[in-house]
Amino acid sequence: MMGKSSWIMLKAEVAQVLLDRAFTKSLASGEAVKAWGWADTWPVAEIRIARLGTRSIVLQGASGEALAFGPALLNETARPGERGTSVIAAHRDTHFAYLRDVVVGDVISVTRSDGLTFTYKVTGMRVADWNRSGIDRHAPGFNLVLSTCYPFDAVTRGNERYIVEAELI
To answer: How many other CB atoms sit within 10 Å of the CB of residue 139?
Structure first.
């Protein structure tokens, strides 16, 4: 079990290096660039929380492959900076482990692959059942939700999600 856990962490870290390169190329070219040829996804944004010193490349679509390598922007939710709710999900034991340390008032910066940057302020955190999250992708305003499995220290899959909610400032 320890070896598998170490492999997952290593894969997550190496993937972020490759994804960072692809994201940088996307910013320069204005086109989607896959981090490796067989990828079913591509970088669409970068999220940062300066207070925590965190930075992650966000992938398009929450397929199993995408979530194995980084946070993912759920299909059919708004792009960051657009009206509605952008929902980004990631695993609790890798890319979104730091969500446990987020507090109300934290600032989240999101830079899209088109180079536009949007700043959000955390308005709250909550726990909800995965199928009753209460997330409204068509909510008024410009919203961001970061979501991961809960509880953070669980070793098996669970039905609860930890949800961080933020609004564009």
So the answer is: 15
Kindly give the parts of the chain with pLDDT less than 70.
Answer: 1-9, 12
pTM here is 0.90
The alpha carbon of 109 is separated from its chain's Cα centroid by a whole number of angstroms, namely 12
Rounded-to-integer distance, Cα 60 and Cα 42, Å: 6
Task: Say how far apart CA 142 and CA 86 lie, in whole Å.
Answer: 8
Which ranges constitute the DSSP H helices of 53-166?
A: 64-69
How many structural domains does the chain have? Answer: 1
pLDDT of residue 4: 56
Question: Measured between alpha carbons, how far is residue 102 from residues 19, 70, 114, 116, 142 in Å?
Answer: 24, 18, 27, 24, 20
Give the residue numbers spanning the domain of 41.
2-168
